Amino acid sequence: MLFLYANMKTILQTPRVLVRQFAEDEIDLLLTMNADERIARYITRRTVDETRDLFAQMLIDYKNTPELGRWALFNLEDNDFIGMCMLLDARPGLSGIEIGYSLNYKYWGMGLATEVVRATADYGLNTLNLKDICAITNIDNALSQRVLLKTGFKPSGTAVINYRLLPLFVKTKGDQ
User: Fold this and answer.
1) What is the CATH number of the domain that holds 62?
2) What domain of life does the UniProt record list for this protein's source (predicted)?
């Protein structure tokens, strides 16, 4: 099945994960993942229509800023959809470039988030030559905070996003 999406730009590959642009017909992968309450409680909640609008904008952004975006994660062994990650201009309240990620629940606890975040941050800092990358997590998401710490992000205070006070982490190029 991997060959069917050869026209979708591959961003990077880790030993277990292919990181590439989403294809136009893959919105259901994102909708299904985001509908899982175990995941939804930690991410920005969007309606189905809001997610469809965001997905359409993602596809446009691939053309306008191909080096950044929200990308699909696929298992290299069986091409199963693992989740998504992103490197984007930081949202209001933050500065620079923001990294984010969410994985389907069945992939939690396998070290895949750490693998993907490490590789994506390396891509941003070294390939794109970014000075630093920021990340936020839900205050209750200890697993995600641990991923950030394990991959070299440092606590950097808090940020107010969507009326919530969230832990802020930053990884600087010199800290690698």
Assistant:
1) 3.40.630.30
2) Bacteria
